[in-house]
Sequence to fold (361 residues):
Amino acid sequence: MLGNDTQLSELVEQARTGNKLSREHLLNHLYGDIFRMVYYRIPSRMDAEDVTQEICMQMIKSLPSLKDSRLLKPWLFRLALNRIKDFHRKKRILSFFGSPVEMDVNVQSSAASDADPAKNILHKEFLFQFRKFTESLSRREREVFILRFLDQLELKEIVQILKRNENTVKTHLYRALKKFRRNAELYALLRGEES
Amino acid sequence: MKNHDRHLKEDQIIRALVDEHDLTTAERTHLLECSLCQKEQQECEQALHRLGDLSKEQVPSPQRRFIPFVQGSHSLLRWRPALAAGVVIVLLMIGIWWSSLFTRLKENGSMHTTRNIETDQQLLTEVMFREDDALPDRYLTIIGNYHDDDSDNYYDSEFLEFVLPL
Fold:
């Protein structure tokens, strides 16, 4: 997610002390990553942008409370996951009044529109299969799986983010991987793409 | 377990993917030496890596950059459906109230018209009556031209005999 760890730690330290320029650099550096992380969980560009904005605001506000600048990543992910949870909660209330969570299919296809038609079809097929797979997972399994393989976090970082026992996280990941391994369609699609 | 006797099972490969340290020493040694098991683990790892890459490709680039200290730029937009629903409900209530009021007014109007017609008819009857006897009733008695249901009994026979003895 982040580049050079030492440089980043320095930047975080400076931003923590209230250096506006460092804060701006830090945000510019993280914005894309935060947005991607949010988009995996809220597949609507407009909503993801709103939530990313909120996360950045919260980050600026709470940055002085970060004790160790090396822990920025798990700290930021935890903050982001809480905002995403808030968003889903709000959406659930709003959907009661007839505003369901929108899946930004057009944006998703436009993101891959540069590719050739065959690749577009592959992307659509992948999305369909991946959605089907994530629906087969429990909430915890899905959470851990996405953190590990989409956000590409280490197991220790996931443990820090979720504040759960390492063995519990491993169990969820193990179950999710087993389901992934047994999902013949998705697995074949991913393997076929490699060759 | 002898290293090349038995290959790792699917469960063990998955355990290795989660955390290689969770495998027993024998299993780890087998994995280090067995190309078939390594291949299977690598295939799974590559599939997962590909999954990450493909997911990344689906993400559009954000169109907005971070705008400091501007919060909830779309909060109104988010509440728009609820707002619209509220407006529709209010409009419906106004419509229902208006239609009931209109019906009531219409009913009142027709009752008023009926009453007017009745009054007009009464007036017309009176006018027609006044064409024959223009004076009001109390003056008719004075001039002796009063025709009432009881008019025949107004002067009893005793009084008439007294005034006009036969």
The interface with chain A takes residues 10-11, 14-15, 17-19, 22, 43-44, 46-48, 50-52, 54-74, 78-79, 81-82, 85 of chain B (CB under 8 Å). Residues 10-58 of chain B form one domain.
